[in-house]
Amino acid sequence: MLQKSESSWTGEKTTRRRRRRRWPWLLAAVLLAGGGYFYYAEGTAPQQAPALQTATVELGDIETNVTAIAKMQPKTYVDVGTQVSGQLRTIHPEVGDLVKKDDLLAEIDPTVYQTRVAGDRASLDNLRAQLAQAEAQLALDKLRNGRAQQLLKNQAGSRDAADAAMATERISEAKIDALKAQIAQTQATLDGDLANLGYTKIYAPMDGTVVSITAREGGTLNANQSAPIVLRIADLQTMTVTAQVAEGDIPRVTVGTPASFSTLGLPDRRWRGTVRQIEPTPTIVNDVVLYNVLIDVPNDDLMLMTDMTAQVFFRLGEAKGVPLVPTPAVRTARDGTQSVRVLTPQGPQERTVKTGLSNRSQTQILEGLEPGETVILGTGAAAAPRPGGGRPRMPPRLG
């Protein structure tokens, strides 16, 4: 076999090294070319416009309200107490019982007051007996005085005897006047003690329902320092709802404003009434100024009870069968003009409108739109850019 020379072997090795060095450069060039094409294709491809959020102008009903939380109490109630002190012997009704006016509710031990009445009557009888005696004495003194005056006139008696007889008559008359005054005083005391004796029986001052009993049988009531409360009677046929309205809303609520409310136990039932009174003195809770607004409502079925919590809606305005759009569709400029964006065959268009009633969800359109037209609320979120590049893209303008 022929042996290759050393020079030829050296040449082949050099050629192989050169070929190995070319491959990485060729691979890098191919990758750069592909990346450039991808960048151009991605940057020049048409982008999908964001989806429009729209709504149709429809005919409907709208209300504007002020909302408040309220508590309810009977419109008419009375705390029945006692005017005299003593041991409470008996309480006749129980909580929830219906009572009529002048029904006997409770009794206090009358022993002390019966004794006082008996003493007053005895004193009165004694004074009346003294009065009868004094009147008899006066009659005698008048006769003696008459004789003394006649004897003095006939010069058969002395002046001193005549003066003494006259003075005695006047003294008897004064005694009678004093006794009459004592009798009147004792009679007044007797009348007062009779009244106190009558107060030992407590009667209902009105028709109603016994809603609470605060005293207990056998307890001692002290009426000298304060009027002890025995029980409360309320007329549950009419309830008063006391709503606390924030100072920012109170200027829009007036006497006669229609109101409706529901309770926690019956959220699907609505009671209706009108504002009877707005109390001028506010209540401040956690630096929030609240005014009490009173509403009277009938309670014929007695479903409303004391201290129930209610959510009250004061109806400030109402319209039926009017064009309505979602409130977010209406835009207000700095000068107060209002407009909406309307979707037309030519594209979105800005249009000036005149609005009426408005709440958080809907706004009444008075001028500028017709039922069936489509308004633009906004646009959906644009697609996120793909990782690895892509030219920055701006969302298309809408009108």
Number of strands: 19
> Roughly how much helix do the residues carry, as a percent range?
25-40%
Mean pLDDT: 83
Number of helices: 3
Cα separation of the termini: 89 Å
Radius of gyration: 51 Å
**Element string (H = helix, E = strand):** HEEEEEHHEEEEEEEEEEEEEE
Shape: elongated
The largest sheet, given as strand count, sense and whether it forms a barrel, is: 6 strands, antiparallel, barrel
If you had to describe this structure to a student in words, what would you say it looks like?
The protein has 399 residues and is an alpha+beta fold. It has three helices and 19 strands. Strands 2-9-13-11-10-14 form a six-stranded antiparallel β-barrel. Strands 6-5-3-8 form a four-stranded antiparallel beta sheet. Helix 2 runs antiparallel to helix 3. The radius of gyration is 51 Å and the shape is elongated. It starts with 5 loop residues before the first helix and ends in a 20-residue tail after the last strand. The N terminus and C terminus are likely disordered.
